[in-house]
Structures are given as C-alpha cells and as structure tokens.
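Usage

Read records sequentially. Each one opens with the input sequence:
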Amino acid sequence: MTHIVCYAAAVPTARKAEYEKHATLAAQVFKDHGARRVVECWGRDVPPGQVTSFPLAVQAGEDETVVIGWQEWADKATCDANMPKAMQDERLKTAGPPPMDSKRLIYASFDMMLEM
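and closes with the structure output:
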C-alpha cells in the first residue's frame, strides 16, 4: 500500500530561492533512497484562521510563506527502511540547515486510501 510522508513549514518569503535549492537537493536524496515521488508546494492562497489553519499550525509570521510537501513511498516498510538512510546521507549533512525554523515543521505519515 502506497505510503505518504507529508509536511508543512513556514519559510521566510525572502528565502524562497534558497528553500527551492534545498528542497531540490533533498528531493533527489529521498528519491535516491527509494521515494517514488517528492512534491514541494509554495503557498499562494493560504488564509489565516481563527481556530485552525496552516499558518497557525506552523506559526507563520507575516514575512513567511507556508510550504507543504509530500514524499510517496511504495509502502511503509520501504519508507521505514530508507528514511534513516536518507536523513544520514552526506549530501544533506553538507548542505547545511534548511532555510527555515525546523522546530515549526510539522509532519506525519499516512497510508494512501484513495487516488483518482
């Protein structure tokens, strides 16, 4: 069963190009370690909420843009076996920290239930 790891974060809007470069490198690393597909999305219409919203969830400031993304894996076992390898990949270690506050990144994994 296809397994999805998804995430959301707040990125300083002025650092969009830097984030895109980091995301491109990370996507290649995850694909090299078995992810079937990696998708990154830069927020366009991401309204703030009063009770819940993407900006509230990642504590986005006025000078930040919400990003979301996901990795598609063949199954949970493949993800579990390869995620630690990807995270320890030398390319990510030497790339430096991502251009955002990783403490406000939220992530979760899901088994795909429906795809049309």
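Summary fields computed downstream for this record:
- The helical segments are 16-32, 54-57, 76-87, 90-95.
- The longest strand covers residues 3-12.
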